[in-house]
Amino acid sequence: MHTHGGFPVQVGSETRYNLDLRPDDVAFWVTDPGWIMFPLVAVGATLAGACVLAYQGTIDHPDVTRLWRLLDDHGVTVFGSSPSLARMLMGRDPKHPAPSRLRVLGSTGEPWTEEAWRWYFADFGGKRCPVINICGGTEVGGSLLASAPTLPQSPCSFSGPCLGIDAAIEDDQDTEPPEGHVGELVVRHSWPGMTRGLWRARERFADTYFSRRPGRWSHGDLVSRTGDEWFVHGRLDDIIKVAGKRLGPAEVEEAVVGDPAVAEAAAVGIPHPVKGEALWCFAVPAAGRPLGAPEAERIRGRVAHALGPAFRPSRVVAVPELPRTRNGKVMRRLIRSLVTGESLGDLSTLVNPAGLDAIRTALQEQ
């Protein structure tokens, strides 16, 4: 439940300050109405006096250049994507010129890999558009962390908390970890766009966001800070624990997609009787590249070299596609459930349910 005052204040300030939306802009974000980015852009652009491009349908039909033509035909100046969508486009890069009017790029939904971030900035954006990273949610009523066009930026980073957000990082002992170390993103005071509760579920609201750290909002994202910049490493429930050591899937996936045979990847932790969890990697082959046993062994070696021998993947499974939402976010929990035999649960947000059958077949064949 949101309020008529707090929500517009939150998204209005963010679209003006973080996305630099102006009255002569045309904004387009690849999203659906159930995700925060739809109302954030629609309401925020309206408050800024800007235009919003609405498009229904796939953005790669009849071919991948559809998106580039869409942006050029409608003069889009502010464009937003999930990192997963950028990785998909990068793997099918048609070497198309950057859209002519683009001046700001946005991203949200999950962590970046540096290779995909650089492609998004340099190839897709023509090296002229700042990448505005956003971390928030529907229940946030906007964003907690974001970048800004006027502030320095490293690949994959956030400039810091948004206006009015008292964000901090806390470890398992409720203390701030040393610089560069990962902890959970928390908020210490309320903010304008914060939801006032869940409809007819007051207890669930309190339990979900306040039970683990009384008095602080627990967001569930794993983050770190280096200097003035913040970095998001994934969701708390996506964390992989191998023999007592913890890591986020983004660290593994960056090492995997660095292999020329891989276009996309997802890393998950699978229950193991000795290690607690074993690391499994699911990789989508790059166009025209084989991904058989020799390539899988090479990928296992890359991960071990990047993260240490303890994180050498137990299995590398080649799959034709990864399960993803309409926003382009990879559904790692579904991959884990396919391996463990658990119930898949709610599939209503899945855009490619047939991909689950393909993954199931790959597990049986490899």
TrEMBL record:
Residues 1-199 form the AMP-dependent synthetase/ligase domain. Coiled coil: none annotated. Its EC number is 6.2.1.1. It is an enzyme of class 6 (ligase). The keyword Nucleotide-binding applies. Residues 251-329 form the AMP-binding enzyme C-terminal domain. Pfam families: AMP-binding, AMP-binding_C. Keywords: Acetylation, ATP-binding, Ligase, Nucleotide-binding. The keyword ATP-binding applies. InterPro entries: AMP-bd_C (IPR025110), AMP-bd_C_sf (IPR045851), AMP-dep_synth/lig_dom (IPR000873), ANL_N_sf (IPR042099). This is acetate--CoA ligase. It comes from Streptomyces machairae.
